């Protein structure tokens, strides 16, 4: 079956679109301290896709609509079997249906782990620059402990094991949130990297929460290994979801996998009631979604290649590398010799392209590096960079 990823769907004006990404780009500008943007703005910030959900899932959700009652709902065994099947077949990772706990979203899941498995004022380690777990950690009265990764100068990041060991050796730090694949760096950690991290954490009794929501979106030739498969289940919790993979984030269905019997003792408190739409979407995605995900990965890879080629030719002073996983690229505009404010003005206001600045991930990354999610029709992604290139061509 051929799937359609080129279709441009109006998520900015359509009555049935409640898109956070397209309806509220203003909050990004507020954070950057700028006012106003073009009406025909292109939004490549928030990590969701502009592709229509797989037709197989839509078909099942329409049938659910025809059922006509959307009352309090419970997760059936077919749901858990579908989750187990997906990870066994696609990632070679086996766990039992009893190891699956459901929470409404990955933030919720990380925050719940923080609340259940750490005490107030304890430290939670994050490898930075990183997608924002600040709210999950600090809003619960815990301390966010940043361990900076090593940047080779070209935006390729590796783990600073010495710094990690130092953070883990501090008795106040009792948890690490691993982001694997790592957002925004695009790293897919290797078997060796994962095991070095796990060894250090276990040596110091630091619980590992591995956020693997981007794990189905991987470049050809790169192997994603779930951390629990690579390192075993002791002292390790994994968070997985259909949210990114199938563009179902609005249904907020995150599965938390806990196979360590000791951790399961406290996991009973991890409970939330899902919607019937969420339940059906997960069953459909994980039983009927393989071909769509394969096609989506191929299309996204084409987007990444096309945009990087375009940037190399038309924004020659930008630094950008191909991510190993996820669908976003980081574009470093530093070599244009402009201030962060001037770069922001050109991209966000004049070109009317909304991205995520480095500030979104780490204060130190500032306003010269910007992340673009390339999970939109190719024409839209390329138009965004054409508009940006126009603003930098004289420099
Ligand atoms: C690494 C990572 N974790 C979690 C989330 C949020 O996921 P959810 O929508 O399931 O809460 C995102 C969203 O961009 C993400 O990139």
Inertia-based shape: globular
**Major sheet: size, sense and barrel closure?**
7 strands, mixed
Kindly report how far apart the N and C termini lie. Answer: 46 Å
CATH topology of the largest domain: Aspartate Aminotransferase, domain 2
The count of helical stretches stands at 14
Specify the CATH architecture of the largest domain. 3-Layer(aba) Sandwich
- Ligand kinds: pyridoxal-5'-phosphate
Bin the helical content.
25-40%
The residue ranges in which pLDDT falls below 50 over 5 or more consecutive positions are: none
- The chain-level mean pLDDT equals 96
CATH class of the largest domain, anyone?
A: Alpha Beta
Beta-strand fraction estimate: 5-15%
The total count of strands amounts to: 14
Kindly provide the radius of gyration, computed on alpha-carbon positions and rounded to a whole number of angstroms: 21 Å
SSE order in H/E notation?
A: HHEHHEHEHEEEHEHEHEEHHHEHEEEH
Strand order of the largest sheet: 2-10-9-8-7-3-4
Global structural class: alpha/beta
Outline of this structure?
Helix content is 39%, strand content 15%.
Give an overview of the whole structure.
- It is a single chain.
- The chain is an alpha/beta fold.
- The chain is built from 14 helices and 14 strands.
- A 7-stranded mixed sheet has the order 2-10-9-8-7-3-4, sandwiched between helices. Strands 11-14-13 form a 3-stranded antiparallel sheet, with no helix packed on it. Strands 1-12 form a two-stranded parallel sheet.
- Strand 5 and strand 6 (157-158) form a beta hairpin.
- The chain is globular, with a radius of gyration of 21 Å.
- It starts with 19 loop residues before the first helix and ends with a helix.
- The structure holds pyridoxal-5'-phosphate.
- Pyridoxal-5'-phosphate binds at residues 47, 105-107, 131, 179, 183, 211, 213, 241, 243, 249, 254.
